[in-house]
Amino acid sequence: MPETNHLLIKQLKTALFGPVDLSVNEGECVCLSGVSGSGKTLLLRSIADLDPHEGDVMLGNETCSAMDAHEWRRQVGLLSSESQWWFEQVGQHFKQPTSDWFEKLGFNNEVMHWQVSRLSSGEKQRLALARLLENNPKVLLLDEPTANLDKENTALVENLVRCLTEKNNTTVLWVSHDADQIKRVASRHFRFSQGGLEEAAI
Amino acid sequence: MNMILLSVYDLSLAAGLILLLALLSFRMKLNVEKQLIIAAVRTAVQLVLIGLVLKYLFEQVNFWLITLLACIMLLAAGREVMARQHRHFAGGWGFGIGIISMFVSSFTVTVLALTVVVQPDPWYTPQYAIPLLGMLLGNTMNGIALGMDRLTTSAYEQRQIIESRLLLGETWSQAIADIRYNSMRIGMIPMINAMAAAGIVSLPGMMTGQILAGSPPVEAVKYQILIMFLITAGTGFGTLTAIWFASKHLFDDRDRLRLDRFKAKK
Q1: Are residues A10 and A55 in contact, defined by beta-carbon separation less than 8 angstroms?
Q2: Which terminus of chain A has a smaller tally of CB atoms within 10 A, N or C?
Q3: Which of A110, A108, A102 lies closest to A128, judged by CA?
Q4: Domain total for chain A?
Q5: Environment class of residue B108 by beta-carbon count within 10 Å: exposed (0-12), middle (13-18) or buried (19+)?
Q6: Considering only CB atoms, which chain A residues are within 8 Å of B160?
Q7: Which residues numbered 172-201 in B keep a CB inside 8 Å of some CB on A?
Q8: Which residues of chain B lie closer than 8 angstroms to A48, CB-CB?
Q9: In sequence order, what DSSP letters do the residues of A86-118 get, joined into one string?
Q10: What's the rounded Cα separation, in Å, for the pair B126 and B254?
Q11: CB-based contact, A145 to chain B, within 8 Å
């Protein structure tokens, strides 16, 4: 019986990358790096089943293709490198009136009334993470989540993710270019090159 | 009251006005004179041809000939819907969605009006069936074309937002809901506006035509009200159907936004 948050990628392949095989243990944080354009974002999109692909992904003993797509994406949450906001106020993008994660991300409940047009790119990025965590995803796919953040806020996000892996057994696949960051957060590190994964030193 | 018949000379005078406008366009370098002349010639030729076809049909009252003409009108309207969109679905879908929605709405409403409301004998009497269907198809086509163009353009422009909503666990239907409502509204608003302005700002063409042809105004008005209600219902149902099918076809069975199903106009 596999652990419920164990992520298993089997022969995942599109015209642009693959095949990729990877097994990430429950509560583990694995980092991916690679030159831009190597297909890291596309890999995350395929794991979230947002792009057509061959192969399959399993979460615990549940198979992606056997689950409703929207249900899969609630459990396997992808945070894009650029967040999108479509209503005027921050709060309209959230289902609940408050988020347990605001404090850990450097906000308080007031942020719900803020205008989206006045958010900085760093604020948007941290709020997008809080928005995604409302679904309580079992797996987090993070696409350069700290690219727009200063040192202090990067630390907030890293600590939050560490808290999730340790306390909630959340499984994390983290795309990062920062070697120091990979050292801080990852238990394993893979380099994405020529459409496939190679294990690399941390 | 007798109808005053128009002679070729009368029509040439009106054509003279078009020529004058073309000349003005040429002098002012507006560059529409060629389009203007071609469109005017097309109007004349197409209408004369349909006049001859109608004359023949009215003499025959043959159900199958009328059905054939109705199908040709439907296909032409379907092609027009596709031609008016900047991005349309590739393959049979681009054509099919328009055709099916127009068939469902225009044909049903026309048959209903003929069999239940107007009740000519036989119900497919071409004097009634063809003009009714023509007006319904023409307006439904406008509504569907406007709505579909809004839908496909918005989906393309807001693709990142739609995908972002999908990634937050929304279904395809939730992720496209706002765009779908807007597109449905856009398709229906011209008819709602036309009803609101009828008689005050504009005298609708059908009624004007009947009055010019010698009908008593109140009788013409009754027909016009009937037509406007039928057109609005037909356009509304047709637009709702088309937008629903089209918005569904923007996604595959795994709720992925599939913009690769579009073909952009060159």
Answers
A1: yes
A2: N
A3: A102
A4: 1
A5: middle
A6: 82, 84
A7: 178
A8: 167
A9: -SSBGGGG-SSS--TTTGGGT--GGGGGSBGGG
A10: 48
A11: no
Is the residue at A113 inside a domain? no
Provide the residue type at A51 as one letter: D
Measured in angstroms, the CA of A201 and the nearest CA of chain B are apart by: 31
The answer to whether the Cβ–Cβ distance between A50 and B163 falls below 8 Å is yes
Whether the CB-CB separation of B125 and B106 falls below 8 Å is answered with no
What's the CATH code of the domain at A31? 3.40.50.300
d(CA A180, CA A1): 36
Residues in chain B within 8 Å Cβ distance of A77: 167
ipTM given for this complex: 0.94
Over residues A47-103, the pLDDT tens digits come to: 999 999 999 999 999 999 999 999 999 999 999 999 999 999 999 999 998 888 999
Cβ atoms of A146 and A157 closer than 8 Å = yes
Domain extent for A159 = 7-82+137-200
Given the structure tokens 């009828």, which residue do they identify? B198
- Interface check B170 vs A, CB under 8 A: yes
Q: Please report whether residue A149 resides in a domain.
A: yes
CA distance B247 to chain A (A): 17
- Chain B residues whose beta carbon lies within 8 Å of the beta carbon of residue A52: 252, 254, 256
CB-CB contact of B103 with B234 (8 Å): no
pLDDT in tens, A126-175: 999 999 999 999 999 999 999 989 999 999 999 999 999 999 999 999 99
Which is nearest to B117 in space by CA: B266, B250, B222?
B222
Chain A positions in Cβ-Cβ contact with residue B171 (cut-off 8 Å): 70
* Start-end of H helices in A108-178: 121-133, 151-167
pLDDT in tens, B41-55: 999 999 999 899 999
Q: How far is A121 from chain B (nearest CA, A)?
A: 16
Instruction: Tell me, yes or no, whether A189 lies in a domain.
Output: yes
